[in-house]
Amino acid sequence: MISPPFFVIVFSLFLKKINMNASFRKNCNHREVSKLKHITALLIKTLMVTLVLLVVMSAIYNYPVGSTVALSLIVVALSYIIGDIGILRVSNNTVATISDLLLTTFVLWMVGPLIIGLTVSFWVSFISAVLISAGEYFFHKYVSSLILRKREDPYTQT
What is the mean pLDDT of the chain? Predict the structure, then answer.
């Protein structure tokens, strides 16, 4: 079996290749680059959330791996749309991180048993959410700087 650090190394090399390839950006229109940024952000977030949940829920508390991965995809989808695109756009990093903490705790605690088929303790959900939120704080800085940048209004005169 291939170890997780191998995937991290390959993924980071992939991201460097995309970011360093200036000719790629020149040949793409703005929408294609924007889609690529969202895809990159989703991949980073998915990797982060999945690794945390696999360590906490599967390795420590012995929840099934497949169900944990499925639950991580649900957490990623909801928190990216609600927290990263919605709340972060209109507030700041602290508010978005706290909302992600609350959302992740709620999803793991309430939706987790429906996906996993076993009861998920509030404390397991909360510990997982705290670890994910620690990564979310830095992830929000990435999203703010690359995806949610303020665009200049083309209609204002200088």
Answer: 83
